[in-house]
Here is the input.
Amino acid sequence: MAISCVGTEALHAAAQVERLRLKVLLEHSQETCRRLASAHQHLLEVVCRTRELVAVSREARRVRQDTGGRTANRPRDFLQILQSAGFTEADLPAITDKLIEVYQTATACGDDKAVALIGGVLKQIGRHIAWELGPRQAGVLLN
Here is the structure.
């Protein structure tokens, strides 16, 4: 009878250890779900901002076409379009960082449409920055 009592106690101990392990796994799973939900929300915000930037890019293209492609007014036009979408020039570094992240994700996922779209927006931002800074300050090597 003592052997079965020891065997029962061992089974209870093993069951308790298993319950604790499952509890830890459940907590870990719940934390992962919270993080995924947060990441999903962040991604939705980035996609929304990206759509706004695409609208800005399209408007910039329209303005360029309407002005016959004159480049003298480009920085001002770009800033006006940016401001019309609710952004300021101070937002450009954060917007650019997020767009780069989304671009890399789209590239990794093989989403060619998103890569082309976001790449176009990044190109517009790059042109604006290059226009404002000039090639030397932007780090472009000149011959």
Remarks:
- The chain has one domain: 2-138.
- The CA atoms of residues 60 and 121 lie 10 Å apart.
- The chain has five helices and no strands.
